């Protein structure tokens, strides 16, 4: 959980593009993706806190370094501890601000930018930090679920 040292400027809205297959989105698959994405987000915050680092909007923090820290942190947790991250209370919860679907699925997410970026990279997506922050998850939603399960050891 974050403490009072959190820089509230780190709470941002970020446009996310999630590529989906044509046709209906299976609710269980979408719900599972969101649950796993939230675990990766929480793991990033935990990894930074474990290192005594504050969460802020400083993009000079290497996203690759933070992804590596998060992966190391996840490797040190049991499956139960990883699963528990899905419900552990966070001071800054990731949120869905808006959602629109034709294809791809466009979502505006709210939360801590670096944690959102790390969760996207762990799910096999891309993060663009120049100008307007954007994240993109390539491939079908099911691929993102598989990549997240693998990265989270679930």
Question: Which percent range describes the beta-strand content?
Answer: 15-25%
Gyration radius, in Å: 15 Å
What is the succession of H and E elements? EHHHEEHEEH
Average residue pLDDT: 81
* Order of adjacent strands in the largest pleated sheet: 2-3-1-5-4
Query: Gap between N and C termini, in Å?
Result: 22 Å
Overall spatial form: globular
**Structural class category:** alpha+beta
Which regions contain 5 or more consecutive residues with pLDDT less than 50?
1-6
Major sheet: size, sense and barrel closure? 5 strands, mixed
In a nutshell, what does this entry contain?
This protein is an alpha+beta fold and 154 residues long. It contains five helices and five strands, in the order βαααββαββα.
Description of the structure:
There is one protein chain. The chain has five helices and five strands, in the order βαααββαββα. The protein is an alpha+beta fold and 154 residues long. It has one domain. A hairpin with a 5-residue loop joins strand 4 and strand 5.
